[in-house]
Write a structure and sequence with these properties.
The protein is of the alpha+beta class and 322 residues long. The protein folds into 2 domains: 4-134, 60s Ribosomal Protein L30, Chain: A; 138-320, Phosphoribosyl-aminoimidazole Synthetase, Chain A, domain 2, CATH 3.90.650.10. Helix content is 36%, strand content 25%. The strands form 2 sheets. Strands 8-11-7-12-9-13-10 form a 7-stranded mixed beta sheet, with helices on both faces. It has a 6-stranded mixed beta sheet with strand order 1-2-3-6-4-5, with helices on one face. Strand 4 (72-82), helix 3 (88-104) and strand 5 form a beta-alpha-beta unit. Helix 2 runs parallel beside helix 3 (88-104). The protein is globular and about 55 Å long.
Length: 322
Amino acid sequence: MRPLSEIYSGDEYPQVLVGLAEPDDAAVYQLDSGRAIISTTDFFPPVVDDPYDFGAIAAANALSDVYAMGGRPLMAINLVAYPDDLDKGILSEILRGGAEKVKEAGAVIAGGHSITDAEPKYGLSVTGEVETGKIIRKSGARAGDVLILSKRLGTGVITTALKRGIAAPEHVGEAVQSMSRLNRAASELAQRHGVRAMTDVTGFGLVGHGLEMARLSQVNFRLAMESIALLPGVAEHAREGVFPGGMERNREYYSQWLETDGTLAEHEYGLLFDPQTSGGLLLAAPLERAGALLAELVAQGEDAFVLGDVVAGPGKIVVTKS
């Protein structure tokens, strides 16, 4: 069977600037010499109990792929799976949370599609725009760049603790606030400060998404475990082994490209693979602009921090304690 990347070759479809040939956060289709359309979709089951919060988080997560390409969302289509026997008022709150988050992004809900399913699911198909000369891909990181993450890690741990009934309400609140926050400011500042490579950290965890950038850029990412900022409560639950199942799947696959100095504790190792929901943007910033970029991110209320740098190498993640 021929792979899709061969069926839809770049030679036949030159307008597809980002597609199947080189995996990235969203597809990009050129309209004319200066403009391109970004297209992406994402949806999933509830990660929190409150339906409004779930809708807002799912919408922020779907919008994030447009921001990861350096673009601006224009419109979105609701994607809904919902049981026949569940209160429709819950669905209304999910849709309200999504609609208000899309409006916050400066975009509009322009339609939707629904199916009946045993488990609720919600998300968006999003259309955005970007100037063709300002597309930020995963493949632009260079040795000497500084790695910045715009949100703290640990949403997978906290949502798993919530499902097990052991999460503190204040920790859930912090995680919900983080997951609901748009990556718009981080994306706009990345454009302003000449960031060359960027992706959002979601289901594949920090190592999985970082590895995609490192491999496509043909460099190594060097991370310092002690520099990685965590959401409140994450470290404690991680020490107790409270991780989602996706962490083990990520670890099993991506650990072959991970090098450590042998000093990481077991829970720290797990946090590197913790699947994130609506995580932050991982930015490879030029050294001379990184300080100003970080200062502006923090000034705009982002929980941004430096977690490492880019060095020459074949495309691996190298993690040391400090």
